Queue: 2 jobs
Job 1
Amino acid sequence: MREFSDQELVRREKCENIRKLGIDPFGHKFERTDYAEALKEKYKDVDHDAFENMNDTATVAGRIMFIRKMGKASFFSIKDKTGSIQIYISINDIGEESYNLFKTADIGDIVGVYGKVMKTKTGEVTIKCLKYTHLVKSLRPLPEKFHGLTDIEERYRRRYVDLMMNDDSRKIAFTRPKIIRCIQKFMDNRGFTEVETPILTTLLTGASARPFVTHHNTQDLDMYLRIALELPLKRLLVGGMEAVYEIGRTFRNEGMDPKHNPEFTLMEAYLAYSDLEGMMDLTEDMYQTIAKEVFGKMVYNWCGNEINLEGSWKRISMVDAIKEQTGIDFKKEMTVDEALKLAEEHHIEVQEHEHTVGHIINLFFEKYVEETLIQPTFLYGHPIEISPLTKKNPEDPRFVDRFELFIGGKEFANAYTELNDPIDQLERFENQLAERDLGNDEANDIDMDFIEALEYGMPPAGGIGYGIDRLCMLFTESESIRDVILFPTMKPLDK
């Protein structure tokens, strides 16, 4: 058993004294009728003197965050989910017994207050307590300066304390669901149907990523946690649902950094009879709708950059973007040896499974272009070798009809004119397996059921995947993915 600090011992003694008074120190149901921010907003323009002729009352509940005890009268503040409000409490208003109970209160305790709404001479909306109810005793003291913790990871590890102490964290926690509700409303209004697809899968498909592996005991079967949502959703297009989307957790067994978490929220959407251009229009419209309806502004400061979401966003091909930065024109036909020579001249390391012109083009993009795409940019025209599920460009089959949305030098979305040719698709799957033999542990399996589905006929379609966590980072102007995920993956303390 751990040793208690002096403060914890005092709090536990108070807890037992409360119990001796016949009061449950960990409380019961409390009928709350009002919230802090709503009260402050309602009475913000009422003059101090006007309250003399009013008898408005309120019942609030929350955590004590401040106490100033002054003999027979005191001030304290409580915080509920909306914010904080000041309470004035006096022995003359609630009686000696209740006031003595209040005097045992510590910062962190949860209490209920019924009282008369008033305003102090300094203009602060305050509740004059007429009935004080102890609800929950806090057995641990709250940190005095939570922002000053030497180990910043404690904010994420003990998120509940972070939410108590850090108003910015609370704001983000309540803002993220508003963003997601806005996205759902936006998609629903455009005729999309929200669906759910399996998290456990038997095949590694839909993206290039290393998976988490688990085991189904009853069937004695190894399974993966999904790395993407794509193939089940495209099966629904085959079935005739035509416009579908899913917002769900996906899992990739990869590194952690300020922009990546092993489990993250992905949204994928597929629209029959659309294409790449349709997905660009959908994306631009969705981001601008979130900006207007949730935040009321179009310019955001993110990772040191001022991002403007207004207007029509830049659209440029990958090879044109590389040419802008390096002068190299990958539109021209070239051999693998010629591309390898260019890579060597530019000090770009090429793995064995990347010995194709397409992979080398992508390596040039990652080195010279990606971090320069600050304002919203649709980058399209990816090499076929790095896009196994995408329709070939009819004018140049070396490239595919795919785009990525980049903002602030980071990828925010990935979209396609979907491949619906089952013969071509099977050939791409087989090429992926060949890459796995050369050491690419992110290569896809062959999903023969999906090939069978395509053989029934999937309509021409546009499809897109959005990283919801990164989207929330932009709109809340957060630099770490851990700020927008309530419970990010953390190393155990003993590690």
Job 2
Amino acid sequence: MEDEESTDAPTPPAPRERHVLVLDLSKSMLAPLPEPDAPGAEKQKIEVARTAVYRIVENASKVGASFGLVTFTETVRIAVPLSEIRGENLPYLESLIAMLTPSGRSAIWDALAVGADLLRSGPGGVRGNLVLVTDGWDNASTRFEVRDPTDVKPPGPKGDLVPHLLPPSSELSFRIIGIGSGQERDKGVDSVAMNRLLGQLNGRATELGLAAGFTYQEVVTGSQLFAQMVHAFLDVDYEGSQSLDQLHPEELARHAAGAARALKEPQQHVVVTRLSDHFSAPPSTAATLATGEAAPIMEVDVLSAPGGVAPAYLRERYGPLGVVIEAYLHQDYNEALERLGKAKPLLPSVTGAYWEARIRFARGEVVDAARHLLEAWNEAEKLPPDNRVRIVRRLALLQARMQNDKETETLVQFIDETDHKLARADPVMKARLHDLFSRLMELRSTYRLTRLEGEVDAAKAAQDHEAAVESIFGLLQDTRLENTSGEAAVEGALDFIEICLAEMR
């Protein structure tokens, strides 16, 4: 009995992420994809897709994620069964990926059904991350169809794909990456059918009260295809940092206490004030689907080169910016600046200014770095609010580093990292955390009033501040009770917020 009650019993490991890629291998995947910014650099769609899959399985082997690959022509095949990817299996997988050869037609709906079957978790429904990459229209499925709800004809012998993908109790993240313009048959993805599928899935998720997220993105160049495929599966790590859910409790407490100091002393942490002026939740999936467009790709990611080795496929992933990042990560800052000068006409203004600031800061040119960072802030102000949120957080993180403001750096990293890790989490849980973030930022003003002398009623200010803290603490406890999945990133974020609240009393 003592063993059962011991607090030293090992904690069961958190479930690994489950990913399935459904990849089009129809004949049209042999066609080239243009690269307008690099004439002569075009590659076949299948070449770009293979390179992205190499990168995805390589990362899966490092983090122990489960990955499966379904390919389709008029025939659907399970190329890689859903399983944990291990380093010793990479040579076999790379050989298998190299042999993926397009031919024939497209059984898209049947392939998606098989992908969902790989993610099926007994009575728990379909659980995991499902990604479809296709450049065509369904013209060969024999088992399933996406029914038009306005069609008055009785359904045919094929099954309805929507309930098959999303049975009760599912936790599904589903992303479609469509290649081509989506306007004409044989000229690109069937955008009408894809939007109809996502619309029906959204309606079913709402009806069943499911935690699910669905997105659709069209790409027209090789670099866009690579970037979207990789971003559908990979997280980008921070430079020289550990994620919150990997920190020892004592380290987490120290980080949270530091972040709280940034909130308590905004006059000494000017970046917090600047960040709070822009603080809001990121764009919703619904908003993205309503417009039919996703936010433009503006690369201001904080990348790292573990062991001095730069990530593979930078040029494919980041287009004209890839060669700049490559030189930067190899610490060849002169070469990085030269390459950036050539690439700037092809980059969004905020991206060019951000990387100029970052490279010059690495060279020790603090004044010039600050000037270019200010330019990036000004360019960010011109962006629509939905596109601005992530960019602003990354600019704030760089500014905090330039000012050696560790407290603000920790606070911004906490918010950005949590938001990034929960990109495919339960929308209700994400909304809860965004509300907690906002309320935490607002505590700065009530805390400040408790420190002013002679200008306000000190007793009432202290009472109002304590009431605000208690209100947030109550919401935090409710969120803990609702986090039935035990998501490590959510628990880490809640622990962090709780420590910040204790420091703000």
